[in-house]
Every structure is written in structure tokens, then in C-alpha cells.
């Protein structure tokens, strides 16, 4: 037990120490040229205390920083009343999140990784302003409380990305892979990038009206972020969630089964415990379209007379980190795959959209399930891609439009965007409202 926690036992009712240390290396290429190599060591600590029924917090670089505990106690004088206790002693699930080979990688190894990407893509796309990057991080997170919780984990993450904007456009194509172990550069992913980039050499504006839309895995946030807002225990508690009274009801298509799986093997966001030291577990949120559960941290769970589901994370839509308040959040959201190739989904569409992203999502009414974005992706005509989308908007409400899912692909990819790194298939929505020509 850290000496700070031992000291806190004598001065406050309860205390919780969060301490994360990380060593990272990053390599960046621009226009096929090495531009930057950075190496950083980061330490960040936060302390929460409960004294006299009120909570206070403080932040520091290291737990032994002078005045750390005193600052948290001073904050508790003016803090909010609390109805919960910090995590107690418990067991945590086994999670293989550390790879020794990844931890030993140096900047030269990341440069070599980028050079392998460069050597293939430069031959096929010599005039493209290609950006390439690789990152490696080794981190150690510990959470200790005066109630006996001692959660600790070492982890590694390594990934690479590459992408380029279309000429004369503010959007482009970007691909990435990541994991806890040294990756192999995927020829399939490189070939897919070349194909998709060449699709964008032409622009095309679809018809205005309701059209079928395929969300690629990295665009799943258009559906998953509104869902997160709906299943957040805080929104249910505050009665702002449209799902507050719909537990056990069918809210999405029967073709959709969605888990929160913080124990997802190989994910760089996988966690055995949340940011309050509560054990994580795989949890079904939507089963064949039926709403099965909400997400709780300790604060919201206590307010609703529910235990924490292990979903208390220092995350928000716009960021994460040491000074971010804990709130209910997905660990690693996953959408179960189907049995149809995504290429076959494209072939079956007379006119529709293949969506890779959306600009302006944050300004929509996503807490109520609605979104309206500038569409990023490609136009489909007669089963073929005819060009990248131009002057196109899409809008919808997941609780209405995702009642009708035509198909879900067998292939999956990283579900990213504003979310932790989970997995999602390609999802074909029967129709969304499209504003085009």
C-alpha cells in the first residue's frame, strides 16, 4: 500500500489514489519523409478523499508531491455530499495486456515499420501526400483505496496508421492497426487503402431522399455514441435518456447484439478494472435488439441503488485523462458480426452510401439518438463505388432508423472515433435521410 494511503487513513474517512505512468515513443512521416521522432515519460496522479460526507480531489505528477493530500482535504470542505464508498478489496479478472517484445521496441523499430509501409505505397501512389505514423507505449496503472482495493496492471500498446487527404479536399482515407504485441504490416490493409484512395479520384453527389447506408467499422460511432448517451446510468438517473423506461424492450433491429467488453483480447483499451478500481466484465447491452442493461459508475449506481458495473472511466466525448471526472462510459464496445461479406452488401445496392465518417457529429442531438453530419465516404451506384461523396449530408435517429438493419457483415474492424477501441462489422441500414443533389 502506498504511504499516501496509509497517511490518509489517519486524516480522512476514505481515500482513493489513481496513479498512471507511461513511457511512449512516436514516429511521424509526412509526404513519405521522416519528420519527427518523440519519446516521453509521463506520470499523473489523482487523489479523491471523503471527509465529513463530502468529496474532494487533487491532482499531481507523483503521489508523494508535497501538499497532495492537504489539497484534496481542502477541496472536501466545499465538495459535494457523497452516498457511496470507494472500492474495497476484491479479485480482478486475468487480462493479458502486456507483451515483453512490444515493451522492448525502440524508435528504430518503429521507423522500420513505417518504412515497410512507405516502400509499398510510394510505388503505387507516388504523388499522394501520405502521412505515416507508429506509436509504442508501455504503461502501469495502479488504484489503491483506504478500503483495501489494490488494482494494478502493466500494459503495452503498439500501432501504426497511414492516410492521405484527397487532392483539393479536406477529407481523405486513413487506415490503422493496433494491439498489445508487435504488429505485422497487413498487405490486405495496404491494398484496401490504395483501392479506397483511388475511389476518391472522382467526386459524386447522390440523390436527395432516403437511401441505404453502410457504416464501416470506424464509422460505427454514428450509432454507438447516441447509444452510449442512452444507456449511461447518469442520463437514466437524470431522466434525460430516451431509454430510461425501456429496459427489456426492443429498441434496435434484431440483427444487432452489442456488448461492452473491457476484457476484449488484444485491444489496447482493454481493462481488468475501471478508473475507480472496480472489476470489469463483459456485459450484454443489446441482445437481438433488446435493451438489457445500463452502465453505472459508483456515484450514479449509489444514487439509483445499483452497484457499479465497472464502467467508471475518466473519459468524455472530447477527451480523457487524469483530471477528467469519472463517469459511466463504455470499456470496449463490440457489435457482433453477421454472415455476409461487406463487398456483397455493396453489390446489392442500386444507389446508396458507404460511410467512413461524419463531420460535425458533436453538434447534433445525439443524447436523444439523433445525428446529422456531413457525410464522409463513397457513393454507390448499381453495386459499384462511383466516387467519393461531395456536398452530401446524412441524418437519422438510431432508435427509428436502426430498427431496420438489412444486414451485418462477417468482417469486423476497429470501432474507434470518440469511443474506446472495440470491434464492429459493416452495418447496412435500410435507409437514412440523405441531402444530395
Poorly predicted runs: none
Question: How many strand segments?
Answer: 22
- From the spread of the alpha carbons, the general shape counts as globular
Number of domains: 2
Q: Which strand order does the major sheet show? A: 3-2-1-4-5-6
- Mean pLDDT, to the nearest integer, reads 96
| Helix content bin | 10-25%
Number of helices: 10
* Biggest sheet record: 6 strands, antiparallel
Taking the alpha carbons of the first and last residues, their distance comes to 64 Å
Rg for CA atoms: 23 Å
Percent of residues in β-strands: 35-45%
The computed structural class is alpha+beta
Written overview of the protein:
The protein has 437 residues and is an alpha+beta fold. It has two domains: 3-196, PmbA/TldD superfamily (PmbA/TldD fold, 2-Layer Sandwich); 203-437, no CATH class. Helices cover 19% and strands 39% of the residues. It has ten helices and 22 strands. It has helices at 3-8, 68-76, 100-103, 107-124, 187-199, 221-231, 233-237, 298-303, 342-347, 398-401, and strands spanning 14-30, 33-51, 54-60, 131-145, 150-165, 172-179, 203-204, 209-215, 258-260, 283-287, 290-291, 312-313, 315-316, 319-320, 327-328, 333-335, 351-359, 370-381, 384-389, 393-397, 405-415, 422-435. The protein has a six-stranded antiparallel β-sheet with strand order 3-2-1-4-5-6. Strand 2 and strand 3 (54-60) form a beta hairpin. The longest helix has 18 residues, at 107-124. The protein is globular and about 70 Å long. It starts with a helix and ends with a strand.
Amino acid at each position: 500500500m502506498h504511504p499516501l494511503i496509509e497517511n490518509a487513513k489517519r486524516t480522512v474517512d476514505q481515500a482513493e489514489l489513481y496513479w498512471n505512468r507511461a513511457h511512449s515513443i512516436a514516429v511521424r512521416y509526412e509526404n513519405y519523409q521522416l519528420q519527427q521522432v518523440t519519446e516521453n515519460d509521463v506520470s499523473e496522479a489523482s487523489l479523491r478523499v471523503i471527509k465529513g460526507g463530502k468529496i474532494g480531489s487533487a491532482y499531481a505528477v507523483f503521489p508523494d508531491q508535497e501538499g497532495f493530500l492537504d489539497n484534496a482535504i481542502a477541496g472536501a470542505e466545499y465538495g459535494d455530499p457523497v452516498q457511496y464508498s470507494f472500492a474495497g478489496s476484491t479479485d480482478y479478472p486475468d487480462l493479458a495486456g502486456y507483451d515483453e517484445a512490444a515493451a522492448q521496441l525502440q524508435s528504430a523499430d518503429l521507423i522500420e515499420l513505417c518504412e515497410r509501409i512507405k516502400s509499398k505505397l510510394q510505388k503505387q501512389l507516388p504523388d499522394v501526400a501520405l502521412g505515416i505514423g507508429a506509436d509504442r507505449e508501455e504503461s502501469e496503472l495502479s488504484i489503491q483505496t483506504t478500503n483495501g482495493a489494490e488494482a494494478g496492471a502493466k500494459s503495452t500498446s503498439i500501432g501504426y496508421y497511414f492516410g492521405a487527404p484527397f487532392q483539393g479536399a479536406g477529407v481523405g482515407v486513413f487506415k490503422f492497426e493496433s494491439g498489445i504485441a508487435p504488429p505485422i504490416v497487413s498487405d490486405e490493409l495496404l491494398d484496401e487503402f490504395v483501392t479506397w484512395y483511388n475511389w476518391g479520384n472522382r467526386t459524386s453527389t447522390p440523390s436527395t431522399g432516403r437511401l441505404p447506408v453502410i457504416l464501416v467499422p470506424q464509422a460505427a460511432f454514428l450509432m454507438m455514441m447516441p447509444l452510449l448517451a442512452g444507456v449511461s446510468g447518469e442520463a437514466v438517473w437524470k431522466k434525460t435518456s430516451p431509454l430510461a423506461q425501456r429496459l427489456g424492450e426492443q429498441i434496435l433491429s434484431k440483427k444487432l447484439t452489442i456488448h461492452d467488453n473491457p476484457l476484449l483480447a488484444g485491444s489496447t483499451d482493454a481493462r481488468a478494472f475501471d478508473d475507480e478500481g472496480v472489476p470489469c466484465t463483459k456485459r450484454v447491452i443489446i441482445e437481438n435488439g433488446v435493451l438489457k442493461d445500463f452502465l453505472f459508475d459508483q456515484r450514479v449506481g449509489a444514487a439509483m441503488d445499483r452497484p457499479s458495473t465497472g464502467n467508471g472511466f475518466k473519459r468524455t466525448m472530447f477527451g480523457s485523462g487524469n483530471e477528467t471526472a469519472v463517469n459511466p462510459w463504455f470499456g470496449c464496445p463490440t457489435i457482433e458480426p453477421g454472415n455476409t461479406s461487406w463487398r456483397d452488401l455493396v453489390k446489392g445496392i442500386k444507389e446508396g452510401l458507404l460511410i467512413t465518417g461524419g463531420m460535425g457529429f458533436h453538434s447534433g442531438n445525439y443524447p436523444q439518438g439523433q445525428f446529422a453530419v456531413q457525410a464522409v465516404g463513397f457513393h454507390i451506384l448499381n453495386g459499384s463505388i462511383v466516387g467519393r461523396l461531395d456536398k452530401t449530408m446524412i441524418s437519422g435517429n438510431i432508435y427509428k432508423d436502426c430498427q431496420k438493419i438489412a444486414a451485418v457483415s462477417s468482417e469486423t474492424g476497429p470501432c474507434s472515433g470518440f469511443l474506446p477501441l472495440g470491434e464492429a462489422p459493416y452495418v447496412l441500414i435500410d435507409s437514412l435521410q440523405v441531402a444530395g443533389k
